[in-house]
């Protein structure tokens, strides 16, 4: 009988958002902060998802490059799987376990709750902002990830069905391989923290950990190479867009309009410019 799961790539970010929204209806003074953050989350959702409408030729070039990289990885899926399984050992599994943790929903939930909750309780505006940005990046990216997983229904490597086996809209967990939710979460976290902390050392460590997550998902036989490539790009690009959107909002908020001046004309807060 097929194993049916509500995939954590959607469940955990949704739980975080629900918690935030419930908090927004709670007692003052914390509810005012949470309500403001909830408003930003809903507003930015539309900005991020409508970003393709503002793409220029350079942005579409990167979209094409992403598709090409995914197709290239697809062509190597079986060979990479065979090589990884030949190298697999209990020692290697233990060494890569940290990658499994870094991309897990439990880690994403705990990290986001810790940073956001700590920032709220300690009245640290930057920590609270980083916590919200983590939530946004994970929520937006994993929602797309979950939709792709369920609609495509790609078989995981361990099923033995092959990398071209699809069963669209299947509720079987073994048919939720593409793209990798762990890779999406790991790169969403890495990109968000890297851009906000602005530390070269932190960036190397964060993206190094995200890379380990990709390797672990392949070696553990849970994902194909192409699953991890698209998952990584999805998480990284969405997180980049979220942080850039916040920077633009902060820039606008810091501007002082002359007395008597009207509001600045509206323009989209986000036109995605990829970070490479």
In short:
The protein is built from nine helices and no strands.
Structure description:
This protein has nine helices and no strands. The chain is mostly helical. It has a single domain (8-251), classed as Vanadium-containing Chloroperoxidase, domain 1 (Up-down Bundle). It starts with 7 loop residues before the first helix and ends in a 22-residue tail after the last helix.
Overall SS class: mainly alpha
What CATH calls the topology is: Vanadium-containing Chloroperoxidase, domain 1
How many β-strand runs? 0
% residues in beta strands: under 5%
Number of structural domains: 1
Q: Please name the CATH architecture.
A: Up-down Bundle
Q: Overall mean pLDDT score?
A: 85
User: How far apart are the termini?
Assistant: 45 Å
Put simply, the count of helices is 9
What characterizes the major β-sheet? none
CATH class: Mainly Alpha
Low-confidence stretches: 1-10, 21-28, 259-276
What is the C-alpha radius of gyration, as a whole number of Å?
20 Å
Range of helix content = 55-70%
Shape: globular
Name some characteristics of this structure:
disordered N terminus; 0% strand; 276 residues; Vanadium-containing Chloroperoxidase, domain 1; mainly alpha; single chain; disordered C terminus; 70% helix
